[in-house]
Amino acid sequence: MNAPVLSRRLFLASSTAVGGGLLLSFDIEGEAQAAGPATLSAYLKVSPDGKATIASKIPEVGQGMRTALPMIIAEELDVAWEDVIVEQALADTKVYGRQVAGGSMATTLEWDGMRRVGAAGRWMLIQAAAAKLNVPAAELTTEPGRVVHVASGRKLAYGDLAQAAAAIAPPDPKTLALKDPKAFRIIGKSHVQTDTDAIVTGKPLFGIDVRLPGMVYATFVKAPTYAAKVASADLAAAKAVKGVRDAFVVDGGTALDGLLPGVAVVADSWWAARRGRNALDVAWADHPTSTQSTASLAAKAAEFAKTGAQRAARADGDVAAALKGAAKVVSAAYDYPFIAHAPLEPQNCTARVKDGKVEIWAPTQNPEPGRALVAKTLNVPPENVTIHLVRCGGGFGRRLINDYMVEAAFIASKVDAPVQLIWTREDDIQHDFYRPGGWHNFTAGLDAKGDLVAWRDHFVSFGEGETFVRSGGMNSTQFPAGAVPNYLHEVSVMPLGIPTGPLRAPGNNAFGFVIQSFTDEVALAAKTDPVEFRRKLLGEPRLIGPEGQNDSFHTGRMRGVLDLVAEKSGWGRKLPKGRGLGVACHFSHLGYVAVVMEVSVAKGQVKVEKAWVAADVGRQIINPTGADHQVQGSILDAIGSTLHQKITFENGAAVESNFGDFPLLRMSQAPPIEVHYLLSDNRPTGLGEPVLPPAPAALCNAIFAATGKRIRSLPVGDQLA
Amino acid sequence: MAYTLTVNGSPHTVDTEPSTPLLWVLRDLLNLVGTKYGCGVAQCGACTVHLDGAPVRACVTPVSRVGSKAVTTIEGVAANPVGAKVQQAWKSLDVPQCGYCQAGQIMSATALLTATPKPTDSQIDEAMDGNLCRCATYPRIRKAIKSASGQAEA
Ligand code: FES
Ligand code: FES
Q: Domain Aldehyde oxidase/xanthine dehydrogenase a/b hammerhead, which positions (chain A) (predicted)?
């Protein structure tokens, strides 16, 4: 149904590993990458003791790729999972290709390539066995860790073949036979995450746990109004604090994702640095964006809603005429706030700068742009920057941007010791790259039969001209685009001096809320059951959009998950007063997801009683324990943000600063979640993001069912009081 | 000031300000980095350790207040049979996602099960509500606590 987006060639090279054994390096060339040809590769080492060391190329943020990708290689190599040692690859795009924990793309992009990596290793071990046993390779097969000659019953352990296999010319990966999925022993079965043991015993794993000889600690204070310069700071007072080694002003630049102005304090311990910071008494220069506030942005958005859009991004048919001729017209305005990522591990990075070489230990989701930023800021060639990928205590998109990396590297370049920079939680909440807020002014028209004939969304966001701020744009392919004859997507933007960026299912995390909530309003106006209305809207199974394009939408796949979630949740059943069921479905990151939530509302308080999820991410769930984590985590993430989270701005600066005013969901608020996968005949795709977008609307639609109150502005907060 | 602390059964002497939080004594002075910094203001629970078996937030516990109380961190909790059982349940149910909050979760759960061997759901909520998990692994934390206490998940 979906053609692969990437067509790839694999180039294999083999050599003898240090200490003997087979070492494979696989270069996979991506031909369809927009930025020109990227070379992707992975490493595999089989040692004489039979252990397979598999490099995990993608940064680990809790999304489980450090387990899932090695599982794929191990499957095709045919080794027992117990014999696999996972190693984190260095950040090196030239060797490993795309190394990004983002966009839910690792499964999509790596599935085929990782299988071929494993299959190539198996093929070479078989060739080595054929030579040793003096039989044709075709007579050989494998069982985990061994090559088997079935006719004679002879078996050779991989470890004993590794040395000889290393001398064999690697195969053309295209010619490799891959396993029949029915024969999978590892893929599709739950495997405890690679680092679980180390996590539960408190082993050092995270960026903040890095320890280097002679290392010192730093804190970096920046202006509450983004990019404002330092007017004055009492450096002497900070230096007088016991344990403080140095305090200095950093001039910084104006790019919000680069090195900003601020004051660094370096000390023997982080607490001493923190105490030094308290003594600084920094005064900040005036900044033009200090007049921005949540209220001023909302006022501007209201003005756009009144005066009309700046431009049309997509216009199918004639919405104005269709609305004029409609039997019923429904209008509603929706909005959602800026929100922060707040991964539990605050931003941090460790850096050593010596003799023009920079070595970095970074919890980052996206190392290469960090390398470029560090190289440019420190004026060193990029090849002089080494980046070690350390486990991230959560990412959610925050660590796709490497501001903390350049800060650590810059501070380390001024100090004669390795430096660990740790942000305070307040730094983290107030200097995020926020999910931008947005406004949607909807109008829909229904004909006499109750069919949707017109849909208009005037989206108000941030940017200049036709350019949006980071993660502030909206694609014009959001369903019901293509399913309604008259469709108008309009856009207005205003300038913004607040950093924004991708948050789990960027864009979609908000579009799912507004579109699926408004769809419920339209269903109500059509006097049609919300599930039934969506079924009608989806219509015949078909692909909307060109074959093989990532945002092309298959109505049949969505219908599948919608039907499944309706069935599993007992949609349509009678509920006591104060309870309600809500449904929503949304497509993003190649995944089709439908969610039903059951809520109860009492005394203005919402309690989510249960959630049901049906997801279609293709034919294979690689590691079910990890997959369930992503699904349940996404639902709970959405419940937390929908009910309680917002970042507000005054004087150009964030008001909220810690978990007291930016609350995360708690144990007592987490409902049970039932997860169902609809395995369809499509390539496996990612699961870290697509489950989130439908959840806020499912929740708010359930609130409506329970109370009759339509939530059109997030968070829900005390709107039900 | 010099302070002698008993951490995971062994004495350690550190020289620091009286107000230095136990969290930073553990992390920066004793190199016990399993205890995590999440908020610094007793709002997330990532820094939870035991003082004489009771859960406390190390980020707001000045070293001067520790006195002769025994400090137990995630690195030493396995010495407590309940702690070992909790860790085992966490492992078999594959509780962590990113894992950053889990040391604190395990310390709170161990304290709960030591005081209340068979907690009800609402006792679990009460004991664990101060431990935030940004990845929201709550369903598995609940399951693991039940499993470690020998109760089947309802
Ligand atoms: S770091 Fe102590 S409670 Fe958050
Ligand atoms: S597992 Fe990530 S914060 Fe709990």
A: 201-288
